[in-house]
Design goal:
binds manganese (II) ion, single chain, 8-stranded mixed β-barrel, alpha/beta, TIM Barrel, PAS domain S-box-containing protein/diguanylate cyclase (GGDEF) domain-containing protein, binds sodium ion, binds guanosine-5'-monophosphate
Length: 249
């Protein structure tokens, strides 16, 4: 049984760790960034976020945990970017509980403390996060982008945002949900949906990131369709920071 006190102790004892899943740029054939994904090194081994993020959200602990994630991701990103010629972007997941005006202060603090270039920080939000308060979200996204950071819409196509919201929310990236990628190239519906998302995004000047890219066939299709970036087991699973560093060499 996972208890609130255990989660609180985990934060105090610094038992959380970020893994980084590489993202590859199709046009330049290179590693260009990553998504940071939290893990908990608990007393009985590695605990995945699905098992503790919901409790962290219910108890409000996601606020200090989320602030730690932001600062840790920026700290690590700054280390990488001091060592590489081509910049590496780092994407951080933001839950609905965190998506409130104070998030601007938390992001600014993480950038200030670490010196990380804001242009290399991406916040991943889902459609449901934005849709719970559309006007508030439009304002908050605007304030976040004024910090110079980028915004990605996660799990795109699975929520209930309509295409009209792509106009209202100022977004830099769309992450095509892996449930659409999975069926490529056999499933004609998945093929149609994925190429349409890529086309719409290109016309709106939004970058596309395919999630859950697992096969050579996925890659071939996505490259031909004009998708910008890919992330998935075909390339790498989420990696501890030192293994990600090895990928940069
Ligand atoms: O590997 P994976 O099991 O890492 O991640 C599962 C889910 O947990 C993903 O949907 C992701 O959005 C969420 N998640 C991972 N890391 C974080 C984090 O740092 N903050 C929040 N809010 N969610 C995260
Ligand atoms: O934030 P988001 O919900 O997109 O979280 C990404 C999740 O997807 C993480 O749990 C990560 O471990 C998982 N993942 C990453 N690449 C793949 C993949 O190629 N296939 C599958 N099935 N899952 C993946
Ligand atoms: Mn994500
Ligand atoms: Na996703």
């Amino acid at each position: 049984l996972l208890l609130e006190s255990a989660l609180r102790d985990a934060l105090k004892r610094e038992e959380f760790e970020l893994y980084y899943q590489p993202q590859y740029d199709f046009s330049r054939n290179r590693l260009c960034g990553c998504e940071a994904l939290i893990r908990w090194n608990g007393p009985d081994g590695l605990v995945m976020p699905d098992r503790f993020i919901p409790l962290a959200e219910e108890t409000g602990l996601i606020i200090p945990i989320g602030a730690w994630v932001l600062e840790e991701a920026c700290r690590q990103g700054e280390i990488w970017n001091r060592a590489t010629v081509e910049p590496i972007s780092v994407a951080v997941n933001v839950s609905a509980v965190q998506f409130r005006p104070e998030l601007v202060v938390e992001v600014r603090n993480a950038l200030d403390v670490t010196g990380f270039d804001p242009r290399q920080l991406v916040l991943e939000v889902t459609e449901s996060v934005l849709m719970s308060d559309v006007d508030g979200s439009v304002r908050l996204l605007q304030q976040l982008r004024e910090l110079g950071i980028r915004i990605a819409l996660d799990d795109f196509g699975t929520g209930y945002a309509s295409l009209a919201y792509l106009k209202r929310f100022v977004l830099d990236k769309l992450k095509i949900d892996r449930t659409f990628i999975m069926g490529i190239p056999e499933d004609k519906d998945d093929v149609a949906i994925t190429s349409s998302i890529i086309d719409i995004a290109r016309h709106l000047n939004i970058m596309t990131v395919a999630e859950g890219v697992e096969t050579e066939a996925h890659c071939e299709f996505l490259r031909a369709a004009g998708c910008n970036l890919a992330q998935g087991y075909y390339f790498d699973k989420p990696l501890p920071a030192d293994e990600f560093s090895n990928r940069l060499q």
